[in-house]
Amino acid sequence: MGRYIVARLIQSIPVLILVSVISFGIMKLVPGDPATLIGGPSATPAELDVIRQNLGLDQPFHVQMWKFYAGLAQGDLGTSLLLGKPVLEATIERIPVSLSIALYSMVLTLLIGLACGVVAALNRNGWADQGAMIFALIGVSLPNFWLGLMLIILFSVHLGWLPTGGYVPWQESFYGWLRTSTMPAVSLALLQIGLLARITRSTMLEVLRQDYIRTARAKGLPEFVVIGKHAFKNVMIPVITVIGIIFSVLLSGSLVIESVFSVPGVGSLLGSAVLRRDYPMIQGGLLLVAWSLLLLNILVDVLYAYFDPRVRYDHGR
Amino acid sequence: MRLTHYNIVLGTVSALALAAGPVAAQQFSCGKTGGNFVFAQEAKVNSLDQHTSSTISTRNVAMNMFESLMTRDENMSPIPELAQEVVEAPDGMMYTFKLRQGVKFHNGKPMTSDDVVASFDRYKKVGILKGMLDPVEKWEAPDAQTFVIKMKQAQPTFLENLSSFSVPIVIVPRENTDAAAMQLKTVGTGPWEFVEFIADSHVRVKRYAGYTPDRRMLTTNGFGGYKVACFDTVTFRIVTEPGARVAGLETGEFHGVEDLPAKAQSRLKDNKNIVLKPLSNFWVQIATPNLSFPPTDNLKVRQAIQAALDMEEIMEAATDGAYRLNIGFQYPGQAFYTEAGKETYNQKNKDKAKKLLAEGGYKGEKLILLTNQDYTNMYTAALVMSEQLKAVGMNVELMVMDWPASVQKQQNTTDGWNFFFTGYGTNTSLGGAEPLRFHSHPFNTYKPKGNVPDAELMTHWNALVDSKSLDDRKAAFARMQARVLDQVLALPFGSLTKVQAVRANVEDFKPFRIPRVSNVWFKG
Amino acid sequence: MTTAVDAAAVAVRKRTFLQRYPVVRRLIRHKAFVVGAALFAIIVFVAVFADWITTADPNRMAIRFRFRPPGGEFLFGTDNLGRSIYARIVHGARLSLAIGLAVVVMNAVFGVALGAASGYFRRLDNVLMRVTDALMAFPPILLALGIAAALGPSSMTAAIALAAVYIPRTARIVRASVLVVREMEFVQAALAMGASNWRILRKHVLPNCMAPLIVQLTFVFAFAVVTEATLSFLGLGSPPPTPTWGNMIAEGRQYIRDAAWITLIPGLALATTVLSLNLLGDGLRDVLDPRLKISQD
């Protein structure tokens, strides 16, 4: 197992290099530069030139690229052009924001998604099954940014229950955090709830058909033991895979939701870095995100092996 | 040596104050002290380094914390701020600034002329408008309270430039002046001191207990004046969604907001809890032509376009009704305002347009309007303009990019686009030559064919910049504006009103180019 | 009498048709599939016949008629520029489907080519899979955003950006099926009999990947429609005034407090389209390839 993890980590290095080369290539093609954004519409071209000099944007592209890699070799991810602070620091201070909302969303997903899936499977073709699956289907069909806007209309504008956006750290006030992060978390969770409910249901149904469940039932074990002990444990295997995928989506895919709710998270940091041409922020931030996604994948595979002893990693893939 | 007119202006203020007697001469005092004022602003703040950022969003926040030697008053005329007095040598070759006594930085250190020297040194290195220091030979600090600027050549508009609020030379402690661009520590002399800045979320400031106010005036005046921090803290929240700003104002989550959508205004007018504070003449909505690319290289075609436009309809749609029709590049009431070129504006004359198109030999060449989505009013102006031009038989296409890409295209290329949509905000309100600088040469927003500028235009421009007397400069401004409009070197659509709003319990909030949080307080 | 005979004849023909294609029979018995197919057919019809369905110009502005709520003169109301939302929804269907289709076609061509090459040719596999790993390590929206920003906003760009996001995922699925098929006895037998690589790919491997591919492409279609709207919403999709649903939501968002219908209606159109594709995809998966799990992202 240890050797496997090390091998996977080594394999991730060329992938990360590719990630940064691809993103450099893309950014090279993006027209416009951050000077125009710092300057705003009233800036004169002379002012823009000063801003470019200040930011080092007057240097040729390959020089900028070389400087980035030279810094990277020393563990320096560079400095954000627009935020005036190191990329590492700028990203790290956003992580608790995105992570807390992702975890909140994850909790909602697990509670509601698993419950819907299990209830649906146990009531196969009953009204609970139909209801849960229609709910899941709607969940996977609603565009989340639009759902976010609709939640704002309902809960902020009409009912006035929740603030329209912003973020209060949980360390500062848990209640404030709950008020600000509920709508983003729900918007993010609905799609994942739908996915998880559907996969849980189909896995449950498959497991319930297996011989050992029939044996367990035949032995006269109480139904909750059959379901709770035998079936559910086996359901965990595909569910963990799906959770890993969902988590990576939550971590990185929240750009739009963060922008809708003005949440200062990692997604909006990187998204606005692209829109504002903050090259170092994109390069450095993307590497950090890609790296954490790769680590997450490795973790998922390890967990998978743990839950399913049939999976072995001694032979390479 | 002689006193400049800036001292005279100041002298008049104090004299008036004395003459008016003790009742009217009362200096501002907070009706009530305390509270956290939450102001929702529209644009993201990049950095609070006021030397190296010219965005409105930075200025909105930073100018409550920083101060400079001179600034602008309510009518945009120069006034001293950290300077007690300014003396200009008769030959215009030297300026002597006496600093106000007892001013301290937020770190507790008294401000001296040494800090002023260091701040100017930093600005010369990284400051965005460092070009204004080009005619300066050197600056020095003969004693702790005196700062002297010696010129290479006299520059009649030097103090005007120095007092500009666009990217002002704010005074910061010497120990902070090594900071790289965008990284200045937020330590100034203003009534508010920095607490925290969470990018994309908020900036929080608190009352600076050691603030020494400028007692020469009765209350705030433009960017300067007598400032008092009534609130304990102020939070500038960044809320880019207009709908969210409105909702937050209605629920009381925000006490003040900027850029209220016009659609919401009609409803909020009747809301007793909310007071609208329209700030007219925030910017001139404008489109500039590409003179090197057909069909806008053809004067007749440009004039045809000018003749076809209905400015009311364009501005109505672009601003949802929050606008004023406005001729040219200054607003009524400003020193340089002129109606020169009036006949070119808002003609709505389709027949004339068609005739001019025929005369110019227009044969359905594509007219490309280069605009952006980041500023919706620019986008909408282009959209409505395209419809109006289609109505006179032109073949119009919209090219919509994001703001940085559209600026890059406009500045670096002379083909593939015909009109670029923008707005002149700061430069217009600064007055003087600033708003017409965009149409002077060499300047890569003005793109004359073959890079040869219009000779008549340049004569007026030189007169506008170099004339010693204010009246000569004003006359040159009028002539240049007339020329710009006559040659259709720009299409100024009208002036945009920016609506700020506060909750009804917020007292003494006066709309201005930045949300001023001094001398504002909560009632009850 | 004749009608009865005709009907019987049709019935006979139908039975033989369905007997010959049991897949079709299973599909039309699948409730979700039928509902999805019907919904999708309606949307396709609207998209194709947009010009007949509404004669109103989706870009025609009428400032006097701004912010008219739905009902009355304007079925879905008007937006901030007085344009008919109904006309824009109808024409928006065309663009959404066109972009979705373009993404699906690019996915089919490049996803299959890369997946098959990777699964079949061992030496290529390592390189191609590292590249897809790298592309998949990007947050999808961010990758699309970067590509769209680089190429400049247009409908074509949006399609390319979305294709770039999903091609690696499609290639993975094709590769997985190829790996399975390649080891099967009949393929090994064909190889032993000296069949060329190309022939084996074409005759044996590809037909066996069709089921998972079709299912995957249905979901890609759904995701493409949503993500295109997301790109438009972020300002990098088809440039306005092109009436895409994403643009409509983006343009209406600043009026959600006072004119919510501008945002609400295009969102419903979008959700209905995605729903129909999801139903279709579910049906296809259940019938074509019951082993497959729900698509991953």
Brief digest:
Helices cover 76% and strands 0% of the residues of chain A. With 317 residues, chain A is an all-alpha fold. In chain C, 54% of the residues are buried.
Q: What is the mean predicted local confidence, pLDDT of chain A?
A: 82
Assign the CATH architecture of chain C.
Orthogonal Bundle
The share of residues in helices of chain C is over 70%
Low-confidence stretches of chain A: 312-317
User: Per DSSP, what share of the residues of chain A sits in E-state strands of 2 or more residues?
Assistant: under 5%
For the termini of chain C, the CA-CA separation is 56 Å
Using the CA coordinates, give the radius of gyration of chain C. 23 Å
Q: Rounded to an integer, what's the Rg of chain A over CA atoms?
A: 24 Å
Write down the domain tally of chain C. Answer: 1
CATH architecture of the domain at 91-275 in chain A: Orthogonal Bundle
**Sequence stretches where pLDDT stays below 50 over 5 or more residues of chain C:** 292-297
Note the beta-strand portion of chain C: under 5%
Per CATH, the superfamily of the domain at 91-275 in chain A is MetI-like
CATH top level label of chain C: Mainly Alpha
**SSE order of chain A, as H and E?**
HHHHHHHHHHHHHH
The largest β sheet of chain C comes out as: none
CATH homolog superfamily of chain C: MetI-like
Supply database-style keywords.
heterotrimer, B: 524 residues, alpha+beta, D-Maltodextrin-Binding Protein, domain 2, Dipeptide-binding Protein, domain 3, 2 domains, 11-stranded mixed beta sheet, 5-stranded antiparallel beta sheet, 16 helices, 22 strands, 29% helix, disordered N terminus, C: 297 residues, mainly alpha, MetI-like fold, 75% helix
